[in-house]
Fold this sequence. Notes:
Radius of gyration: 21 Å
Strand order of the largest sheet: 3-2-1-4-5-6-7-8
Order of helices and strands: EHEHEHEHEHEEHEHHHHH
CATH superfamily of the largest domain: NAD(P)-binding Rossmann-like Domain
CATH architecture of the largest domain: 3-Layer(aba) Sandwich
Strand content: 5-15%
Amino acid sequence: MAIETVCIIGGGHLGGAIAEGLIRSGGMPPKNVTVTRRRPELLRHLADMGVRVSLNNKEAAAEAQAVLLCVKPHQAAAAIEDVKPALDSRQTVVSTVAGLTLKTLSEALPANPIFRAMPNTAVAIADSMTCLSTPPAFAGQIGPVQELFGKIGKTLVIGEELMDAATVLGACGIAYALRFLRAMTQGGIEIGFSSEMAQFVAAQTLHGAASLVVETGNHPEQEIDKVTTPMGITIAGLNEMEHNGFSSALIKGVGMSFRRIAKKTAQ
Length: 267
């Protein structure tokens, strides 16, 4: 059964972006989306779109087919206690909380189908990469959850052991890509473009490069080979970047983020 009503507990950056994406993509009517926040006045932009906003987690959760927990990790326990009395066994609970395990979630909500989801902030424009996981008992019920997140981007079902890695590569990865974009823009300014023009060219180029890989399934090196000629300008630039540690720095950064989240999860 498709998920037709959603309550998002926690209308911060991610929760608000999910709501925006569902509305802007036409994936769900605004009246079918409720978002809660302790300061609902900060959700005025969503209310203006027709989304229902509230500061009462319990009331909001009671009316939704799916409840999305989008709070910060230290707020998760309190949010679960808020909504638990309002839930029945037919309601799906999806957590986007980093480090909140399926075991902990199932112990807190033993009667409900539970899932973990790790989207990124590109959900706001329906272009997220969302990784999903669930206990074996609910594997047969993941279809509607995958369909819901499919309305706001691409999805991939993974084992829970990969959720920390998904957080780093998919969610933190937005920041990594944007930092690359900033650097490429600065390079464009140095060689003559205005800042606005450099950002536009760099952003579209980055978008096109990613789309080439997504649409064709080709390895990045296959596409790189198409634009590198012997003694050419592209290979000269790439080699200069590699000599200065470009790939190594990025790989080390991904590894550092992963070690940090693994340490927090272990705690």
